[in-house]
Specification:
- By secondary structure, the chain is mainly beta.
- The chain is about 10% helix and about 30% strand.
- It has one helix and 14 strands.
- The strands form three sheets. A seven-stranded mixed beta barrel has the order 4-5-6-9-8-7-10. The protein has a four-stranded mixed sheet with strand order 11-12-13-14, with no helix packed on it. Strands 1-2-3 form a three-stranded antiparallel sheet, with no helix packed on it.
- The chain is elongated.
- The termini are far apart.
Length: about 290
């Protein structure tokens, strides 16, 4: 019994049929006749050239003298690259990519300890009830505020000095202007903040830290940390490009340098400023705001 390919069939379509005695035959579909014709490998098809399958192709286990890219198009039909050269070219490119991946993984492993600051569980009530707990408020520590999990509203983060794994952390090495990123474990939700000021409360009974922050970015406007969310904390230097940092927040960055750019995210502003001659001035003062 021959099991044919699923319809619809197309002219010249082929498949391999294995007979009961183990012989392989190649079936070729002829649309004009609406019929399949079977050939043994190597036999001519309809008096023309024979069918060649990948099973008929042999690969030389030796590197050719020249290894050229089959993808360097010259628009010259006489520029030919045989399959052996193409295979070796692809193989060597794969080796280069694998080495680059290994080097990148090593670099990531080297910087990961400096980024990762541990994991804490979020308490929505605004209280640090014990080790491994963090909470958040909608105002900096110097102002009266309310507990919040809404990422865009967070102005201060409160966390116990000992994380969920039992590791003690210090944050005296965290400087204003650095970025603090919080990832929710097992979820795409995250919050990115700019560090404003770090407060050490580890000498008291509470043994905790407070980090005043400015909101920078999150996944969605409604993203929030929920009760008992396990969150990972990363702290790192802001990326730079072209020698200029762009601060993104609703309050001016601290200790700016001449030429510092600041995008004010306040709903009544949404304006790009540049620090010039001791003050932030609009980078394009005469341009209308985009609605």
């Amino acid at each position: 019994m021959i099991i044919y390919p699923n319809k619809p069939w197309s002219d010249g379509q082929t498949f391999i049929h294995t007979t009961p005695d183990g012989e392989e035959l190649i079936g070729v579909y002829d649309e004009s006749k609406n019929a399949w014709t079977f050939y043994r490998p190597g036999e001519s098809v309809g008096g023309g050239s024979s069918i060649v399958t990948t099973a008929d192709v042999r690969t030389l286990n030796t590197r050719p003298a020249a290894v050229r890219s089959p993808f360097s198009l010259t628009n010259d039909p006489n520029t030919l690259v045989n399959q052996q050269e193409a295979n070796w070219y692809l193989w060597e490119e794969i080796q280069v990519l694998q080495n680059e991946i290994i080097e990148l993984e090593e670099e990531i492993d080297a910087i990961a300890p400096s980024l990762e600051r541990g994991s804490w569980t979020f308490n929505a009530s605004g209280v640090i009830t014990g080790k491994g707990i963090f909470t958040a408020y909608d105002q900096p520590i110097a102002q009266a505020g309310n507990p919040t999990g809404m990422v865009q509203s967070i102005k201060s983060l409160w966390l116990h000095s000992i994380d969920k794994a039992g590791t003690r952390h210090g944050f005296t090495d965290v400087d204003p202007g650095q970025l603090l990123e919080i990832f929710v474990d097992g979820s795409p939700d995250y919050g990115l903040f700019e560090v404003v000021e770090v407060h050490d409360y580890t000498n008291g009974a509470g043994d905790y830290w407070i980090i005043d922050v400015n909101f920078v970015r999150t996944l969605e406007n409604t993203t929030s940390f929920k009760a008992n969310d396990l969150c990972r904390f990363n702290i790192f230097e802001p990326p730079t490009g072209g020698g200029t940092n762009v601060a993104v927040s609703d309050s001016a960055p601290r200790n700016p340098q001449q030429g510092q750019l600041w995008f004010n995210t306040n709903d009544t502003e949404l304006t790009l400023y540049i620090y010039y001659d001791g003050v932030f001035v609009p980078a394009a003062p005469d341009s209308p705001k985009v609605q």
